[in-house]
Specification:
The protein is built from ten helices and eleven strands. It has helices spanning 2-27, 30-37, 41-55, 71-98, 112-115, 118-130, 142-151, 213-225, 239-247, 293-305; strands at residues 60-63, 66-69, 106-110, 135-139, 156-160, 172-187, 207-210, 231-235, 253-256, 267-270, 277-285. Strand 7, helix 8 and strand 8 form a beta-alpha-beta unit. Helix 1 (2-27) packs across helix 4 and helix 2 (30-37) crosses helix 3 (41-55). The longest helix has 28 residues, at 71-98. The radius of gyration is 21 Å and the shape is globular. Residues 1-8 and 315-326 have low confidence and may be disordered.
Amino acid sequence: MRGLHACGHACAMVLTAWRTFVTVCRLGSLSAAAGELGYTQSAVSRQIAGLERELGVPLVQRHVRGVRPTPAGEVFRHHAMAALDEADRAVRAVRDLRDGASGRPLAVGATPSLAAGIVPVAIRRLLDTAGPVRWSLLPGLSLELHDRVVSGDLDVAVVTDAPPGLPNDPRLERRFLGMDEMVVVLPVDHPRAGRGPVHIRALADQTWVEDNEGSAALLRQHAARAGVTACIDLTAADLPGKTALVAAGHAIALIPGVLASALRADLTAVALVDPPTRGIYTITPRRDPHPSTAPLLDQLVTAFESGRPAVAGATSGAVPARLSGV
């Protein structure tokens, strides 16, 4: 018993420190994180220092306006957020069981950009039409989400066939939602802003940033077809980090066209000539589907089809404005 108690205490301390670190990164300030979490600033500093000692690398760096994660800290933040989300879901599931909540939650997965676009819209419409449904949303890359549907962790996932593609798995049902055209995201003061569609050859001398190999592969293939090379000199841990580097003027990036209308105000999206595309699909288990899966799939189709292009120079109706993510 003593060993279990010690383990539980240690695990709680680890999650507390991870949550503190993620909050510091989000707010960019030790004092602001202390205020939000109800700690003293020195307690926040000790937790960050403890993580750095444990991992053997600096996780944050100080600057005149506060703190920001180091490259190692950005990688750790990405994984810490996923772990904290899982821990929160575990606690909610046990409390729901304790409180007698009926029915299992609808577990939905989506690629990062789709989790920021059509999936929340579709879930909102599901709740409005079907009434209260307990649900959760897990962002991830397509292959990871595929595996979690197979294992039973997810009831439905919204994924893409961007490289390396989707497995043809007989255990899963695949439903095609539509094609999405990739676009280029630029700072609003970029010389090419508002002047699309632009040929990739006109951007061959630019520095590019990517956050995952699927999007990078689409960019390389598109450039190669035009006889040029896209210089992917910067790497971001996730989609927000990728767009932050573009907004700061460090690079330009390829993003899903369906993400265009959700961009921050200091960014703009420009269409490409003969753009790379990827298909968007839902995948669900063939056996024991969640009762809310079928109505959610219908709402996802509606959410995808109701979008409109929000890209400079876009002429195709295949770019829904409220979607996203590789």
